[in-house]
Amino acid sequence: MSNIIADVVVDVQHGDCGKGKITHHLARTGNYTHVVRYNGGHNAGHTIYHEGKKFITHLIPCGVFFGIESIIGPGCVVNPQRLLEEMKELREAGIDIDNLLSIAKNAHVITDWHLAEDNKDKAIGTTKRGNGPAYRDKYGRKGVRVEQVPELQEYLIDVYEEFHRNSEHDTVEILFEGAQGFGLDVDWGDYPYVTSSHCTVGGAVLNGIPAHSIRNVYGAAKIYETYVGAKQFGMDEKDEEERIRQIGEEFGATTGRPRKIDWMDIDSIERAVDINGLTTLVFNKVDVLEQVGRFILYHGDNKFEFDSISDMQYYIEENIKRDNLEVIFSGHKDRI
Ligand code: IMP
Ligand code: MG
Fold it and tell me: Is pLDDT at 47 greater than 90 in this prediction?
């Protein structure tokens, strides 16, 4: 039996907070034997700056950038054609994915019918990638698993064998990368304006590891909030919203849709910190707010404005303080 250690990267807002940057940093500096994507499908878009080049991945874990075995976990839904395209794009960009990428054979398929169904959505403002219908069929017990797809056969694995009975590594050290975020989680998000999968640390555990193997949980947040979808969302300060969007490049990585922007909400971050049991919380894009020059957040029923970014950071640190929680502030393109 192998010993298993797992770190998990989650997003504590509505996605797009820089999980890719944290995962990329951890994969580069850590000792992981595996990187696993644990929920969602190609509705996600992870923006990664690697060796000076910008990559947007949708389903393939960032372990492939570092020669680490990378797995699309059983909690994911896979559009086979889009996955094959993404593999081709990475190969063409010189990333050596072969022999590194595998797919859990019990992951589910997004079929053409799922895509067509999702394209009818108006109420939620989905990414129209077939995610919701694929999960609906999975839980309705009428889904299709990737093991039924001929083109994917050579990539399939059993994650039990891979994690628990690994003949190569006595200790399997896994980095789990989540997709979407706490505010989009099917149980904890703003239902029904959510995605159809589990975006919390619990979602990672569903991918074949024992709960006690979790070591560190890293949370990605932004110093302001963004959301993409149909619900009403946004700040009263329309000039600031537009400046944040332009300076922060707040357009969807998957769909190109302009992201709706509001000030940060401390209460919802606290919920995400506690429910995920975060050990590190990174606030990204602090420099974007500095350039815009307004420092506002919500806490309880109140809206607070600060004179400077450092005053705002101090307030956040004081209110999010927990035993064993490290809080980091980071700029848009800074390394952590
Ligand atoms: P779905 O996941 O495509 O079903 O979309 C459900 C909701 O989640 C919509 O509001 C989407 O805009 C949002 N969503 C899904 N994936 C992402 C993501 O990667 N980033 C931000 N929002 C997302
Ligand atoms: Mg994203």
Answer: no
